[in-house]
What we know:
By secondary structure, this protein is an all-alpha fold. The protein is 79% helix and 0% strand.
Amino acid sequence: MKRFFAVTLGILTAIGGFVDIGDLVANALVGSRFGLSLAWVVVVGVVGICLFAEMAGRVAAVSGRPVFDLVRERLGPRAGLLNLAASFGINLLTLAAEIGGAALALELATGIDYLLWVPAVGLVAWLVMWRVKFETMERVFGLAGLALVVFLVAFFALGPDYGELGHQLTHNPSDDGAATYWFYAVALLGAAMTPYEVFFFSSGGVEERWTRRDLGVMRANVFVGFPLGGLLSIAIAGCAATVFLPQMIEVDTLGQMVLPAGLAFGQIGLALVIFGVFAATFGATLETALSSGYSISQYFGWQWGKYVRPREASRFHATLLVSTIVAVALILTTVDPIKVTEYSLVLSAAALPLTYLPVLMIANDPDYMGDRVNGRLSNTLGTLYMILLLVVAVAAIPLMLATKAGQ
């Protein structure tokens, strides 16, 4: 049982990173328009996030310090500030979208307008971050997010045409142009490798006081949690490809996205998936808010973390509070939470090299890592991914403008 609970950090990180509100709708939208022809992007993203999360977790376990804490020290204040500005801006947008997503899930459950739920979601999230222990938080919301496994079960229960789905893996069924196809490819990769994931994961390792003896636990978190998130993403796309694509219905709301579970299992399935959506988006709310607090505090050298009393990390907790208030205020302007996340995914894709190059550099630095520096395979894959991420970063904004964000 202890081993099972030991991987809940990876589950929480993966659920938040792969199946937050933007990914829930984006994967359903991609499935309804492109079938499974973009499933390969999720696989590429899973391999990439596993590669760099393992590096970040290893840095935390060996050095006892999270990645962002070392970025300024290793790269200098100017490069660190550029990294901070990009990651914090994206985190804030994502935080707003996650709060809105949790509120949308509550609207589906109660029928009460989501805007009325937004302040309550923000308040409860802040109270959880302030009062609940890190270990309890990760276990409760990481495991609750597993309710989304209902999508995987629903996919098989719906009786899909496996031959057609297999054909879609290599043939795009959509009439949309190449630019739109590649726009969604970039967005899905940005979703899979969102910067806050590695900052949260490595900081979480420090919160749990990982040491060299915990490298096995860390790798179990990586190689169980993140592939699970990727599998759920593909299952959501598969459900949409089975239910909506044959009817030429484009999914663009959370209400549509949950329908396949309802078709497969009726009201019980619908209740489970709405609960899972809420747990995933609320967990992602905690994850993104904490990542904002971690990055700001670590850059400026403040005491941070939930492993110390709030009074001992007052500026860290003040950052959490201010970030949450700003995110709530943004959603209360009535901006669409799903659109906010979709734009943040593209901006995230554009910022990926700024996040992962420092991770690759620190994981190769013997001053921090000793004999636990990257091996040849990690460096080869890391270099190939850096080339890919540079191409994605260059293409992200032009594709967004050319396709009007995939319209």
